[in-house]
Design a protein that fits this description.
CATH architecture of the largest domain: Sandwich
Number of helices: 2
Oligomer: single chain
Strand content: over 45%
Shape: elongated
Structural class: mainly beta
CATH topology of the largest domain: Immunoglobulin-like
Largest sheet: 12 strands, mixed
Order of helices and strands: HEEEEEHEEEEEEEEEE
Radius of gyration: 30 Å
Number of domains: 2
CATH class of the largest domain: Mainly Beta
Number of strands: 15
Length: 229
Amino acid sequence: MMKLKLVLTLCMLALALGAPTVLSRPASAPRDTIPFDAVSVTIEVNATDADAGVILFNDTEERLHHLTIQDPSGNVIYEMTSSDAKGLGLTEMSSETAEPDITTAFLAYPEGDYTFTGEAFDGTIVTGVAHLSHTVPDAPELTEPEDGARLGINHVVVAWELDEKVDHYWIEIEQEDPPVNFTIQLQPGIHKFKIPKQLLLKASSYHVGVGAVSSNGNVTVSQVDFETK
């Protein structure tokens, strides 16, 4: 009985002396999680050079401070941080790997789902999943110009056999000196394109590539070289 009285007395004394009261803290508010506007992981095969590269893409309106991409096994294959003082952050990112032989590229980036996770400067989490397929279109069969042809700038036509399975094509024109590069996206079904003379210089060397784009975003490119008179 004496022990109980002593305990009660000590408790009352502590309250009288103003002992601090322990208050429970409210749980921190959960951070918002929203989807990316767009994410993709695609393969571009160069059938002429027998190599391939993987292209990673994401887009969001959020100002990202940190971004990671994980492969189907959960390994982080890409990581980027923005630390600018004004908090501008990252919104759109497109990055391409090196271009080893095709087998090496496929082994490095297996088929499956790739997870994108971004953290914005305001704490918002942005997520998305892109599926990578190893199915690529057949290489375009170019009919014009012949590789190594010498052409007048008014008469440069690029043509190839149409593949009905392809979603659409693009053309890339690369000038060696001075270095200039143009890429032109074509409407579905187009398989012939006359290069405007305004894009060409006389007595110059060019590479032209035709990219066949499949519905899954993968591309196969065929290339030829030509010179202008």
